[in-house]
Predict the 3D structure of the following.
Amino acid sequence: MFDSLFKNLGEKLSLQKAVSTLTDFDDKLKDVSKKFGYSGKQFDQANVALGDLARNGARFGVTIEDAFASFEQMSDALRTTNITTVSEYVKNLQNIPKAYGIAREEVMALGGTLGFFGLSSEKTQKYFQLIAAQSKIY
């Protein structure tokens, strides 16, 4: 009897969390789309790109809020609303804050500045890896 009670309770909590996560994602997507003026195909593209960012970020403990905040901050730093460009930079830098103990805001600001001046997202990621390796030496 108790086994089925706890199993049902666990299933309900999981379902509530899933619904809450989807609602949060939808709300954030609407906010970003409104801020950047995405509609039609751009809205669909943003939905896919930000969904990928949220899933990728979850592997590194990045919340939906942080994934969207990173997207917005990177867009501002790169001075573009191009969904593909911004999401590529964010995706390549999402693991840096937790891996190296650098604040997300700092990673996105510096990464965006380097990207604005022509450094690719892959090279920017390697730049952070070099900084971390150098800091271990000293």
The chain has a mean pLDDT of 83.
